[in-house]
Specification:
Layout: E1 6-7, E2 23-24, H1 28-37, H2 46-55, E3 61-67, E4 73-79, H3 83-89, E5 91-94, E6 120-125, E7 131-133, E8 138-146
Parallel strand pairs: 3-8
Antiparallel strand pairs: 1-2, 3-4, 5-6, 6-8, 7-8
């Protein structure tokens, strides 16, 4: 009997961010154990996300926050079921947010300096930053951005 073959890796291509699913011949229990402890470039794990979901079963949304060059938190709200995807594969966010002024308006000419054309770059959760915000009833997690080559951006 052949063991289950499941996707276990997220890769990036130097030219653009791509999801590439590597297949493994690991038996299913081994795969589940490894997936729960897989580490993102920031050191966050799926265990952290699952522990939050278990502790806060009524939370329906999570604020994903990336701090821009001015120290302003920008981001998006994801639904509960998307949290494990954020921890397992990261999340695309526009690199052009680093070409904005404090009001969020594009700075003339700043996009021309970006080598990637200002498209989405992969963001990963900062380990230990996931928490509950009583004032909003949502979760909140800080993320950091990486370029297509896997280096912190900007």
């Amino acid at each position: 009997m052949q063991p289950a073959r499941l996707p276990v890796a997220i890769c990036t291509d130097a030219a653009q961010t791509l999801l590439c699913l590597a297949m493994t011949p690991l038996p299913l229990p081994t795969y589940i154990e490894k997936a729960a402890t897989m580490i993102s470039p920031t050191g966050s794990t799926l265990d952290e996300a699952q522990a939050f979901l278990d502790q806060y079963p009524d939370v329906e949304g999570i604020d994903v926050i990336l701090t821009d060059a001015h120290g302003i938190g920008r981001g998006k709200i994801i639904r509960r079921h998307e949290l494990t995807g954020l921890y397992g594969a990261g999340r695309g966010m526009p690199a052009s947010m680093f070409a904005q002024d404090v009001a969020g308006d594009d700075v003339d000419g700043a996009l021309a300096t970006q080598n990637d054309g200002g498209g989405d770059s992969r963001c990963w959760p900062v380990a230990g930053s996931l928490g509950f915000v009583p004032a909003t009833g949502r979760g909140m997690v800080l993320v950091t951005m990486f370029d297509a080559g896997g280096q912190p951006h900007p």
